[in-house]
Amino acid sequence: MNIIWTTDLNSEAYQDSLAIRRQVFIDEQGVAEAIEIDKNEEDCYHVVGYENGTALATARLLAKTPTDVKLQRVAVLKDWRQQGYGRDIVFSALEKAREEKFSTVILGAQMKAIPFYQNLGFELDDSEPYKEAGILHRDMIYKLYQDQD
């Protein structure tokens, strides 16, 4: 998979990211566009994965503190799921977080996606389940350096 990172909201990669997010979150899951495409877009690192020129997976990273970054909007187009593209995009995001000198990656996982993230090394935190965009989530954490408390 060819992976492209961008912070340019005028780039083709960002537009491809939005197209994937619209299909997965807005069309499939019924998330309102005003929630999905939010005020944080310009503050994020956006990633898109391509296979043979087709944009099929995306995610974004949003800095929360100087050490913590939030992994958000992880999505793979329906016809491309269960083929390792989600894993690849998450691993690329973890590497980007390391490069940008973050030490912890946090995310709000949809309940059905928790096993996926656990298989990639994320751990549930102590928070209770909560609804975001009408979908039940749990917070998860990934420590980029093993010696962290």
UniProtKB/TrEMBL annotation:
Name this protein carries in UniProt: GNAT family N-acetyltransferase
Residue span(s) of domain N-acetyltransferase: 4-145
Entry EC no(s): 2.3.1.-
InterPro entries in the cross-refs: Acyl_CoA_acyltransferase, Bact_Acetyltransf, GNAT_dom
One Pfam family cited in the UniProt record for this chain: Acetyltransf_10
One Gene Ontology molecular-function label: acyltransferase activity, transferring groups other than amino-acyl groups
tRNA processing among keywords: no
EC class (word): transferase
CDD domains in UniProt: NAT_SF (cd04301)
Annotated signal sequence range: none
Record keywords, A-Z: Acyltransferase, Transferase
